[in-house]
Amino acid sequence: MREKNLAHHLAELESNRDQLAGGVDERTLARYERLLANKGENVIVGIDHGVCGGCHMKLPIQSVVSCQGEEEIVSCPNCARILYFTREMDLAVMD
Ligand SMILES: [Zn+2]
Hints:
The chain is α+β, with helices and mostly antiparallel strands. It is built from three helices and four strands; from the N terminus they run ααββαββ. The protein has helices at residues 2-15, 26-39, 61-69, and strands at 44-48, 51-52, 74-75, 82-84. The chain has a four-stranded mixed sheet with strand order 2-1-4-3, sandwiched between helices. It is globular, with a radius of gyration of 13 Å. The site of zinc ion has 8 residues, from loops.
């Protein structure tokens, strides 16, 4: 359920930028705003089979694990998009 919550939260964050100031820490917000300015849309992407949903680069396992743990917001080391993890994306990560 926690994955779902995060994904939901991020989806809201995407559509309700004006309302997010209270709910997201400032560093994350700043990062998000910067990404949005640089890349336009689609700055929050899922991890899909161990690759970034934005640039499709294979992610370091550490990034996947951190994202899975949801203890921090994880960015793609290649494109810097914010990553989120859902159970559906779990397949083939650990091979
Ligand atoms: Zn990427």
